[in-house]
Design goal:
By secondary structure, the protein is mainly α. It is built from 3 helices and no strands.
């Protein structure tokens, strides 16, 4: 799968998640993604990861 993120900058979120080494809390995540005008639902994301046996 190839994902294109535009405009640039949001890739920093993925770098932060990698360095964090754990699943972030919802409030913590919202603080990080707020400047990008995005929303995130880690519970739903992790359910899909488990369902499809993905590595996140």
């Amino acid at each position: 799968m190839l994902e294109v993120i535009s405009p640039g900058g949001l890739e920093e979120l993925f770098r932060w998640l990698d360095r964090l080494g754990r699943e972030p809390g919802q409030e913590e995540l919202e603080q990080k993604i707020g400047p990008y005008g995005c929303e995130a639902d880690m519970a739903a994301t992790m359910a899909l990861v488990a369902q499809h046996r993905l590595i996140f």
